[in-house]
């Protein structure tokens, strides 16, 4: 398995207090739901996987922090504000009590590609990942390595090409990785839950 937790872009982080958002509580509830399904969590002895975000402005968003995967319920102090990001320059600028998820660029790529995207959920699941690849869902190239500008651009292209306010993508080059986005947190979560039903994920994956 390819594990999360390795930042390949240049992270410019400034320690600061938590950034509030009226949508945070809903985002955090969605994350807890995903954690209960095993779609966010921690590999045995390894780093965490899965992360959630909500858009704040045109080019910024709030995202769960790095190394938080194992916790079932997070507080606002375990989220970070991605104040800006630049795929081409491979930089992510963040502010908050914790460092942002190492997959912040992946989330940013979706927000950049589609202005209507309000929430991005990134999950890991063997069953859903294998099923989506088998069934020909939109996919990033298998050769695009995790955490690189190439995969961020591939995600951006994929989302822009689909041009839909909500959708799901399987990250072929990022084992077990799936992205869902929507015009609201509830819609993005619904899409993930639909995948759970379709691929018969009824317990921890
Ligand atoms: Zn991942």
TrEMBL record:
Keywords: Lyase, Metal-binding. GO terms for molecular function: aldehyde-lyase activity; metal ion binding. Residues 25-203 form the Class II aldolase/adducin N-terminal domain. InterPro entries: Aldolase_class_II_sugar_metab, Aldolase_II/adducin_N, Aldolase_II/adducin_N_sf. The keyword Metal-binding applies. Pfam families: Aldolase_II (PF00596). Gene3D superfamilies: Class II aldolase/adducin N-terminal domain (3.40.225.10). SUPFAM superfamilies: AraD/HMP-PK domain-like. One of its GO terms (biological process) is pentose catabolic process. GO terms for cellular component: cytosol. This is Class II aldolase and adducin N-terminal domain protein.
């Amino acid at each position: 398995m390819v594990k999360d937790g390795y930042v390949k872009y240049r992270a410019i982080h400034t320690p600061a207090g938590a950034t509030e958002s009226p949508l945070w509580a809903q985002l955090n509830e969605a994350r807890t739901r995903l954690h209960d399904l095993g779609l966010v969590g921690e590999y045995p002895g390894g780093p965490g996987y899965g992360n959630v975000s909500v858009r704040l402005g045109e080019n910024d968003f709030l995202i769960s922090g790095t190394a938080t995967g194992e916790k079932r319920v997070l507080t606002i102090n375990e989220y970070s504000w991605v104040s800006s990001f630049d795929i081409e320059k491979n930089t992510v600028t963040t502010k908050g009590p914790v460092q942002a998820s190492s997959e912040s660029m992946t989330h940013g790529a979706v927000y950049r590609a589609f202005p209507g995207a309000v929430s991005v959920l990134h999950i890991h699941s063997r069953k859903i990942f294998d099923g989506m690849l088998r069934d020909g869902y939109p996919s990033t190239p298998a050769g695009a390595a995790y955490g690189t500008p190439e995969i961020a651009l591939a995600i951006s292209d994929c989302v822009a090409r689909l041009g839909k306010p909500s959708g799901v993508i399987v990250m072929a080059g990022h084992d077990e990785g799936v992205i869902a986005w929507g015009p609201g947190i509830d819609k993005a979560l619904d899409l993930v839950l639909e995948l759970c039903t379709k691929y018969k994920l009824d317990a921890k994956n």
